[in-house]
Amino acid sequence: MNRNEMISRIKHNQQPWDLIIIGGGATGLGCAIESASRGYQTLLLEQDDFSKGTSSRSTKLIHGGVRYLQQGNVSLVLEALKERGRLRKNAPHLVHNLPFVVPSYDWWEGPFYGIGLKLYDMLAGKHGFGNSKFLSREKTRHYLPTVETEGLLGGVIYYDGQFDDSRLAVNMAQTAADQSATLVNYMKAKALIREKDMTAGVLAQDMETGAEYEIKAKGVINATGVFTDQVLRMDDPGAKEIIIASQGVHLVLDASFLPGDTAIMVPHTADGRVLFATPWHDKVIVGTTDTMVDKILTEPRPLESEIEFLLSHAARYLTKDPEESDVLSIFAGLRPLVSKGEADNTAAISRDHTIYISRSGLVTITGGKWTTYRKMAEETIDQAAMVARLEERPCVTYDLPIHGYHNNAEKFGDLAVYGADAAGIQDLYYENPELRKQIHPAFPTIAAEVIWAVRHEMARTVEDFLARRTRALLLDARASMEAAPEVTRLMAAELGRDDAWIKDQTDFYLSLANGYIL
């Protein structure tokens, strides 16, 4: 992917696009793949970077949703379990099995959760990741060496999926590009174009140069997540707000708090959430919270109450109680929940997705979850193609490999998340051994990855690289700040930027990363 080439396509395209997609998170990128793979001329516009918002701040799980089963939403669980299996098949370099243990401290917990997880297995059917089973106290301690032992009776083990969310988003953008979609980050949709009271395109502004483009299209899709209402008001200034934002916070700890490759799942916390402590990239992620927020920010910040909640609950289940000083990074994301009347708390609001078609023909897709992005996209493009009066074409994404597809990516070691692209990064440092140097001792990331991200993954800022092309910001915010100057230097040389850009980028990143530190 090359941004200049993508913008050139916009400039030289003389006919209306079949579909314009606003939003470059999981849902928008899924729609771009779905649309382009059906042969529709597709353009995706993202005002920031791909997966800048909610889609890079998840719990890093591809799962059916044990909590939804508790709530009785069997249809959502069935759909998610099928999509979980498809995603592992289509992106094996990024999605893998992860064992979870539910520790039991009351006599009823083992049988109660064990039966529920057996149902979970049954619903998964041929898409299952492994069979759940009861564990003795000793076996539970074997899987979870640092689990709190006081009162521990045993546990239940089951299997779900884990992934790297923003890496998958980048590979999804590349997949859409492979299918001939045009995708541009840092391109803001400022207004909708209307012709005869129907949506007929987008007025967009390049956030790097300030240039504006009037882009015509047969159909427009609003896939902007928590910013859905902003686009709906472009369509109708009097539109009723439909999004309730729920904040989820995660903290990152050293692997010593939960060594091994097994996660802890607590089915029911004080606020009704499921709590996870999961090993990820040689660290441990503890999350999540579910807090209604009034303001929708591009950089949401955790509340003191959320921090206290996560630390106190982690201490209940781990022998080593984490303190604030142990937190390597803390990050917050906003979930776009669709309002369907009054609700006392966000945990009670459905996570189902919603497709809405306005009188002008604007198609809005919102809600849902990472795991089901493909199914959401399939349904959205079905509707959008009908509204835009495009030729009906079948869905082909059930078995469409995601860019980077590789069944044995682990052979690439620290470059495994790149899948088949890892060989291209290796070629860079074979040609220039200096590019094999680590950007910081705390990360396995090497200089060649910076060059690759600029040339092939449309990384435009230091934040793009340290937060999303790699996960340095989330894994260790302080260390990422120390790595920033070297990354800035490498990116500036590749992008042809001057010293002023280097200073601005470094200063901005240090300010941003400071918000990820307690």
List keywords for this structure.
518 residues, alpha+beta, FAD/NAD(P)-binding domain, D-Amino Acid Oxidase, Chain A, domain 2, Helicase, Ruva Protein, domain 3, 3 domains, ten-stranded mixed β-sheet, 16 helices, 18 strands, 36% helix
CATH homologous group name of the largest domain: D-Amino Acid Oxidase, subunit A, domain 2
How many separate domains make up the residues?
3
Silhouette: globular
**Low-pLDDT regions:** 342-349
Mean pLDDT: 93
Number of DSSP helices? Answer: 16
CATH topology category name of the largest domain: D-Amino Acid Oxidase, Chain A, domain 2
Query: How far do the termini sit from each other?
Result: 36 Å
Brief write-up:
This protein is an alpha+beta fold.
Care to describe what's here?
The structure is a single chain. This protein is an alpha+beta fold and 518 residues long. The protein has 3 domains: 3-54 and 167-240 and 350-387, FAD/NAD(P)-binding domain (3-Layer(bba) Sandwich); 95-162 and 244-347, D-Amino Acid Oxidase, Chain A, domain 2, CATH 3.30.9.10; 409-514, Alpha-glycerophosphate oxidase, cap domain (Helicase, Ruva Protein, domain 3, Orthogonal Bundle), CATH 1.10.8. The protein contains 16 helices and 18 strands. The chain has helices at residues 3-12, 26-37, 66-70, 74-90, 109-124, 137-143, 165-178, 228-235, 304-317, 373-387, 422-431, 447-456, 462-469, 472-475, 477-495, 499-514, and strands spanning 17-22, 42-45, 61-62, 96-104, 133-135, 154-162, 182-184, 187-195, 198-206, 212-222, 243-254, 263-266, 275-280, 283-287, 291-293, 329-338, 353-357, 363-367. Strands 3, 4, 5, 6, 11, 12, 13, 14, 15 and 16 form a 10-stranded mixed sheet that branches. Strands 1, 2, 7, 8, 9, 10, 17 and 18 form an 8-stranded mixed sheet that branches. It is globular. 53% of the residues are buried. Mean pLDDT is 93; it is low at 342-349.
